[in-house]
Amino acid sequence: MDFSTICIWCWVIPLLVGALCAFLGYLIGKRSAKGVDTSGDLKALQDKNTRLEADLAACRDSLNSASSAPSGTTDAASLASGFAASEASGMGDVGAEAAIEEINFDAGGAKAALGKSVKLNDLKIIEGIGPKIENLFNNEGITTWSGLADLPVARCREILMTGGDRYRLHDPASWPMQARMCSEGKWKDLARWQDDHKHGKL
Predict the structure, then answer these.
(1) Which of 56, 86, 133, 187 sits at 20 to 30 Å (Cα–Cα) from 36?
(2) Domain ranges for the chain
(3) pLDDT digits (tens, 9 = 90+) for 15-40
């Protein structure tokens, strides 16, 4: 092999290597860019954002209807103050649960099933709970149906006893279950249960 042939290969081999590297770099870059645009994480975040926007819109609609309803759900100012109080006391989850109940609350469906007007998170809709007992629970931070639904029966009895011996005769065994029906909007089930159990009296 003569000197000129060696010189030619000295130029050709680096050019081929450079071209091959450029082509591979192009393919890798194209694949990376395509992966970013169609990644599962990005799609999941976009879906989550869409759901949050829908929830926000529903919450705003519910607040608007609540503030204009004469005897329906709580108004926007009271809901906002509830959020502020829950944040101040480090109970953000309680505020979130109240917002979910606000969105899902159907005052018309509740009235049709129970035969009377129902206000959001009115604990008195639960058989066995009157204004004084509701006040005892509110004083302990139980202000929503979901909050009562998550409460153990033993804790319900403890709260009752904060009012004195006169509340010893009350049986809260069914209260968390009834509260769960309220928080999930199962008004027909609640009405049927209360009728079957003589309005809460087993």
Answers:
(1) 56
(2) 41-104, 111-196
(3) 767 777 777 787 777 666 554 445 56
